[in-house]
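ARCHIVE CARD
CATEGORY: sequence design from structure
SOURCE FIELD: tokenized fold
FIELD CONTENT:
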């Protein structure tokens, strides 16, 4: 098995620094992700930081993948406000980008207040979710 893994890893293209970055406002989540990235070739080239999305710099002409909270541990008004803020952030700070957002509660999609180009049903563990694509001009 190790031989197959090593042979497969030879075909992985290098991920240049700055190509992929991620953030979360929870330090424990970032540390967990860093631990997982240590197992990937070029995982050290992926930049992670502890920051709410509202404090990220302008993200232009990129692909954005986002898995915001589903609202399981948040009050209804807080989760709606979070999705309103996420939609505003994308609209104002991510021109010429595409965003793929995973919704644990599909009824929260309208809270983005952005046009969704398509939605796909996916399973995240045992939770049925919707992946929505938003194109930002």
């Amino acid at each position: 098995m190790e031989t197959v893994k090593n042979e497969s890893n030879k075909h992985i293209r290098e991920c240049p620094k700055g190509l992929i970055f991620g953030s979360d406002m929870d330090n424990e989540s970032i540390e967990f992700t860093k631990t997982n990235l240590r197992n990937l070739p070029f995982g050290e080239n992926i930049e992670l930081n502890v920051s709410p999305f509202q404090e990220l710099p302008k993200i232009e002409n990129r692909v954005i993948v986002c898995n915001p909270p589903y609202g399981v541990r948040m009050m209804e008004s807080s989760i709606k406000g979070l999705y309103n803020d996420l939609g505003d952030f994308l609209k104002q700070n991510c021109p010429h980008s595409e965003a793929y957002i995973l919704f644990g509660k599909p009824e929260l999609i309208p809270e983005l207040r952005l046009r969704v180009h398509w939605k796909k049903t996916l399973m995240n563990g045992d939770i049925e979710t919707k992946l929505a694509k938003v194109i930002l001009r």
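CARD ANNOTATION: The chain has three helices and six strands. Residues 56-137 form a domain with the Rossmann fold fold (CATH 3.40.50.150).
SHELF: design records, drawer C
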